[in-house]
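Run log // design_07
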């Protein structure tokens, strides 16, 4: 297959080389912008509150940069219920942003959830998603960039995207379901996220910018989540972008965006949209969280072509074969994890991590003596085909377990259904797609329903039967 790949010039990405089996390098401009949408109900009150209670741009760093300690919001500020036309409304307190993000215990799980949004855009023509390090132009601090060339979001779609508990993904094959992924994942990775999106729909070209900032909410003492957002539409007659809001709305939202985002002028802010092209979405998470060691959780330095988890990379050359196996490397190497994150990926779609294409890997291809087992979980749920076999490296590697996917997305990698202490599963690995059970909201486990328990019992039996027949009698 030819890996020839073309990206329009104003995307901010230059192609150098794409050939099978070789390093695919993309030179990424490090001044990528950010793009996101906000709620419609932004008022001049919030903007004025921000101006009167805020601090200088150089002082926006959080007092606590450790994620698990950053939830100490001022509890003296309470969410206030309001009443309109006899109907009660309860504002969501900013502290919920942090508590909601704690569902992601593993930082790569948060990265994967952001990528899910881009992979869902394949149905809208997306051909790539970029994951890379960029920098905050205000202070030069590292930030995380995720950008795709999907259909993008118009102003209304962006507002639906950032509303809690709403999902407009109608496709049965869409990975996202609850409409909560962006908030939980971005806030788990860093204190602040800015998003840009361009969309061409119904012969109308729009661009939107929004900011989800825990720093802003905490520093200004907000008692509800405020997401500043501005929208523009391209005017064909004048060849310019026109704001879709009145002057006061634009002034109020821009004042917050320019004070708390990485950009200090409207021109700098909107220039970032040009890197998207005619359609797509770009997310940048900044003020990234730190770990227990006082170092940033995401390690951009250990490998220039990878993003790792700080402190997890082993520097010794005397590592065992098991340590170097994909099953262990995926715990700290984003490149290893992304290589198996999706069971099927179209040939014309690429994930570009730190300037190099991720090589997709099917674990089933690593198995020797493979067998194919059909499992019928329920009379209405159809059939599930499970591939089971020995790793090619077995028994030299202490690896075993099942890789369980849901709607093409890896949920449980190398799930241990049997304890290895009995030496009855060493090297036995399986792959299956279980769409009949429901994943948890963070997509790192399944709900422990009776259907899940039945699957677990069946996989245990399957492992023992395979190991006895193949291993003992080969």
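design_07 sequence
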């Amino acid at each position: 297959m030819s890996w020839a790949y073309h990206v329009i010039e104003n995307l901010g990405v230059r192609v150098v080389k794409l050939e099978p089996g070789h390093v695919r390098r993309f030179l990424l401009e490090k001044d990528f912008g950010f793009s996101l949408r906000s709620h419609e109900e932004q008022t001049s009150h919030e903007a004025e509150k921000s101006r009167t209670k805020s601090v200088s741009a150089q002082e926006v760093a959080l007092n606590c940069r450790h994620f698990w300690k950053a939830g100490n919001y001022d509890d003296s500020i309470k969410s206030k219920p309001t009443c309109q036309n006899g109907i009660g409304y309860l504002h969501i307190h900013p502290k919920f942003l942090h508590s909601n993000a704690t569902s992601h215990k593993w930082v790569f799980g948060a990265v994967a959830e952001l990528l899910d949004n881009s992979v869902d855009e394949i149905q809208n023509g997306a051909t790539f998603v970029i994951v890379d390090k960029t920098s905050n132009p205000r202070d030069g601090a590292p930030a995380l960039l995720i950008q795709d060339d999907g259909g993008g979001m118009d102003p209304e779609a962006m507002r639906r995207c950032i509303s809690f508990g709403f999902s407009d993904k109608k496709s049965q094959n869409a990975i996202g379901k609850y409409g909560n992924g962006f908030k939980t994942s971005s806030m788990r990775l860093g204190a602040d996220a800015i998003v840009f999106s361009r969309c061409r729909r119904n012969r109308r070209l729009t661009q939107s910018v929004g900011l989800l900032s825990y720093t802003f909410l905490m520093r200004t003492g907000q008692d509800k989540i405020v997401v500043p957002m501005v929208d523009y539409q391209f005017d064909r007659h004048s060849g310019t972008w026109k704001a879709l809001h009145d002057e006061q709305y634009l002034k109020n939202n821009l004042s917050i965006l320019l004070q708390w985002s990485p950009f200090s002028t409207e021109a700098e802010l909107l220039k970032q949209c040009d890197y998207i092209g005619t359609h797509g979405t770009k997310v940048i998470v900044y003020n990234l969280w730190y770990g227990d060691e006082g170092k940033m959780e995401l390690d951009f330095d250990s490998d220039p072509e990878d993003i790792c988890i700080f402190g997890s990379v082993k520097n010794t050359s005397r590592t065992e074969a098991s340590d170097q196996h994909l099953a262990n490397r995926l715990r700290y190497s984003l490149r290893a994890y992304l290589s198996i994150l999706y069971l099927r990926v179209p040939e014309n779609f690429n994930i570009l991590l730190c300037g190099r294409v991720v090589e997709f890997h099917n674990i089933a291809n690593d198995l020797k003596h493979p067998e194919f087992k059909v499992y019928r979980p329920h009379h209405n749920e159809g059939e599930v085909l499970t591939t089971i076999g020995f790793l090619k490296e077995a028994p030299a590697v202490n690896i075993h377990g099942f890789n369980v996917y849901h709607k093409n997305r890896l949920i449980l990698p190398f799930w241990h259904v049997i304890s290895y202490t009995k030496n009855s599963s060493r090297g036995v690995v399986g792959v299956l797609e279980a769409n009949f059970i429901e994943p948890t909201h963070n997509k790192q486990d399944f709900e422990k329903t009776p259907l899940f328990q039945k699957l677990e019992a069946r996989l245990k039996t399957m492992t023992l039967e395979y190991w006895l027949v193949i291993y003992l009698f080969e």
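Residues 450-473 form the longest helix (24 residues).
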